[in-house]
Amino acid sequence: MSDSEFHFQAILKLRENTRDEKRNALELVLARGKELRTGLNDLDQLLIKRRNEWTREQRKRNVSLATLRFEAEEFDRLTLLREEQVQRIEACREEEDACRQALVEAQKEVRILEKLRERKEEEQFEEQRRRETRQLDETNQRLDRRP
After folding, report:
1. What is the DSSP string of the chain?
2. What is the pTM of this model?
């Protein structure tokens, strides 16, 4: 293996490793996004449950002003948590897009290098075929010159 082939193989291996790192990073971000969406769903379910409970309790009995304030504060707190979760999901989606783009670029680099390697192998094969053909021609010429 020549120096250029060795360097080429090393570069290809580096690009493949980079691509794999980008793929792993995307998988982590996707998993985090899934967790965030699950958390949002849980918050939504909790908000619905609490709203139903509060409505039921208010219909059953007279509720004090302090209880109403507490329930309103609790509802506001849960709503704020939900909004923060939505913001985290949006940030995660942006990160997902960036990771996808980085992965696409890394995959392109690997494909380009693989195509170059294939082309180089084809050139080497053709060069070897030409050498063999030339040697056969020379051998045939020598055999034709014999008396």
Report:
1. --HHHHHHHHHHHHHHHHHHHHHHHHHHHHHHHHHHHHHHHHHHHHHHHHHHHHHHHHHHS---HHHHHHHHHHHHHHHHHHHHHHHHHHHHHHHHHHHHHHHHHHHHHHHHHHHHHHHHHHHHHHHHHHHHHHHHHHHHHHHHH--
2. 0.73
